[in-house]
Design a protein that fits this description.
The complex is a heterodimer of chains A (about 625) and B (about 100).
Chain A (H helix, E strand, L loop, with lengths): L9 H12 L6 H28 L5 E7 L9 E6 L1 H24 L6 H20 L3 H19 L6 H32 L4 H11 L5 H17 L8 H4 L5 H10 L4 H8 L1 H6 L1 H24 L3 H21 L3 H28 L12 H4 L1 H15 L5 H14 L5 H27 L4 H10 L4 H8 L2 H16 L8 H4 L11 H23 L4 H13 L1 H11 L4 H19 L4 H21 L6 H21 L1
Antiparallel strand pairs in A: 1-2
Helix pairs in contact in A: 1-2, 1-4, 2-3, 2-4, 3-4, 3-10, 3-15, 3-22, 4-5, 5-6, 5-10, 6-8, 8-11, 8-13, 10-15, 13-14, 13-19, 13-26, 14-15, 14-18, 14-19, 15-17, 15-18, 15-21, 15-22, 17-19, 17-22, 18-19, 19-24, 24-25, 25-26
Chain B lengths: L5 H21 L3 H26 L3 H31 L13
Helix pairs in contact in B: 1-2, 2-3
Classes of the chains: A mainly alpha (about 625), B mainly alpha (about 100).
Amino acid sequence: MQEWTGLLPVFPLAGFLLLVLSRGRMSRGIAGVIGAGSVGLSFLLALGIAIATLNNGGQAYTTVLWQWMQVGDFAPGFSFYVDGLTLVMILVISGVGFLIHLYATGYMADDPGFARFFSYMNLFVAAMLVLVLADNLLLLYLGWEGVGLCSYLLIGFWYDKPANGYAARKAFVVTRVGDTSMAIGLFLLFSQLGTLNIQQMLTLAPQQWAVGSGIAVAASALLLGGAVGKSAQLPLQTWLPDAMAGPTPISALIHAATMVTAGVYLIARTHVLFELAPSVQLLVAFIGLATLLMSGFTALTQTDIKRILAYSTISQIGYMFLALGVGAWSAAVFHLMTHAFFKALLFLAAGTVILSLHHEQDIFRMGAMRRRLPVSFWCFLVGSAALTALPFTSGFYSKDEILLAALHQEHYGMLLWSGGVLGAFLTALYSFRLVFVVFFGRDRHQSHATASHGHDDPQAAVVEAMSPVMFFPLLLLGLLALGGGFIHVPVDAVFGSGAQEEAHASQLVHTLMILIPIAGVMIAWFVYGSRSYQKAGEHLREQLLASGIGRRLHRFWFSGWGMDTLYEWVFVRPFLTLAALNRRDAVDQIYGWVAQAARVGNSAVVMLQTGNLRWYAISLVGGLVIVIGLGVWR
Amino acid sequence: MDAIPYEHGLILAAVLFVCGLLGVLTRRNIVFVLMSLEIMLNACGLAFVVASARWQHAEGQIMYLMILTLAAAEVAVGLGLIIQMYRRFHTVDISVLNEMKG
């Protein structure tokens, strides 16, 4: 199986080419089979490779496909490196990707751009697989930009709405900031180490650089910049909530399960560099902590179901960064995997809700969906439980590992741990606020729907939204979100044994980490769910909003801590002003004069064409006389 | 045989040519313009004939035959156009027909 590693990204790429070349003339059935089937084939192959590799004792290997280019000493290969970390990533990408593709054949069934959608999706999966398989940073960068392009294309998939195009451009430009930093990082690494091959770099770097040396700090900080942009961490997180303009399967695949975790993968892959720069590693932890708290508070105030999930994605990736920052590499990868399961599940379940309500996304216009969409309800409940890290769900085990690792950080352990626990409390609060508002309480949509659509049969909506291709992925992801915590990620060999020491903590810490999310759920129930306390809950909410500071805080959090406004004033406005000032720039003036001269000359010559025949005859004769005269007298 | 000196022939041709040219340049009536053109063509023809007599060469006379044919064809086309023009614009004054200008 291992000799076929090169085929992994080929299947989705072939699917992309087939779908693109058919230019939408393919029937939906065939397009769906190609779109989902190509990723399914990749998944089967990935499974085979994983089994073969693990039977082999998890031995890492490299498959050289061909030499990409040769410029002096620089000879990056088009070659794939497979070890435990890669295995986890390819299984998550192709597996979760396949389920989401399957779901999308149902979700997008009525969309006119069906084939286009799947062609972009396949291209994305191919690029993402190249990203995680690459054995050198240049090939990784190819995949990195490829997924960025697909993200742009798919956020703006419904391009006839200008807001979607704006969101797509915003995502592209903001991530480009990080990518530029990463590219500079690559230049620096190459100029210092003379290679971009990751494994060679990881052996060379500790030999050449001292711990904490300036060059190590610079290189890892630049790579961190790229990771921060891709993974939507502070301060480049503003694009992800807007990226929810894309179709929901996109949000599940790209903006929750796979692409946004590429930054985590990058840092985990180059973890040796970060270990050489402890200050940058600490920065990673604090970026993660700040992001997870900030987006937790923001998620509390949002009203759009997908934006809440987007902020929760940002905060969960914050946990992964926290884990990376305290050196718990395998915990980060573990959380990456479980997060892919439960967040994809949450998005897909949210997708069925949105679809059944005719693309309604405001949670305060939903309500009592538990009765209308029982399957979605249970899936969403499982996903939220895993997100909240309630005991025995997958999220519990991964978050537990992260928080314990944070507690054992040398200097700031207590701070990082308590921040993480506060984040867990917020997670519980906002995710169960979502559950209780959407699935419990009064059906706020029906009254609204009857007003606008006339008759709306809730039973019909259930049947309509739940075709088997959508049900099966939900079920499978639900099982994974529940039981994914028992999967052991085979990354011990990748990160060395040092990082794997068993974390010990007192009973109190464990109890707190179990009780605090439950407390969050209880409070959410008290404020949003329980019927007997509903009056009191609403009263409390109103009082909070009525007080000046409460209202101001709410507005501040709702706007995502004012980051968008800040960037608008610091970057966008000045840039637009500059552009407006430079509209008549000096260089353009010169070309303007050339055009003006041509225009004047033309109008002068035009006057000669009078339309008078005798005038032409006279000019002819005059010209003739001059020419002959010149000939005679010369 | 007292040959006419070829200078006389050429002078006559030049005079005829200038008469024709003046007619083309000054006349407003398209029929007269056409007639003046004929005079110019014949002046050229005369010059050829004189030149062929001077050099004892037949080619000039052959050239004159060609000019004659050409002139006949030209007149046929030209008169046809003039008739069309008159039908359409009810005038033969070319200074009126100056719409094709820049």
